[in-house]
Design a protein that fits this description.
Strand order of the largest sheet: 1-2
Order of helices and strands: HHHEE
Distance between the termini: 20 Å
Number of domains: 1
Number of helices: 3
Strand content: 5-15%
Oligomer: single chain
Number of strands: 2
Length: about 100
């Protein structure tokens, strides 16, 4: 999926998929609290008010929504007519 900012659209995204893509294909569900908080730190997102995994996950999803709203290229899975799961493009290394 290339830049879609000029038009409105709905999508789903998932914190595990975001983490996996931004860490070059490495993400552990067992270490999600530490991995996702560290990822937010590397992205420059303030974590001090993110007191539980739900708020951490919401911040990751909001980051992807921000990317979509600003026209950043995203990777989409699924069928546009029935729904897409959107994540940042996978990196070859970590963020």
């Amino acid at each position: 999926m290339t830049s879609a900012a000029p038009r409105r659209y709905c999508f789903e995204t998932f914190p595990h998929a975001i983490t996996w893509h931004l860490q070059g294909g490495v993400a552990s569900a067992k270490r999600k609290r530490t991995e996702r908080r560290a990822l937010l730190e590397r992205l420059g997102i303030d974590r001090k008010d993110l007191t539980n995994i739900d708020t951490v996950d919401a911040a990751l999803c909001a980051y992807v929504a921000h990317l979509a709203a600003t026209g950043a290229p995203l990777q989409a899975y699924g069928v546009e007519a029935t729904g897409l799961i959107v994540v940042p493009f996978a990196t070859t290394g970590s963020v």
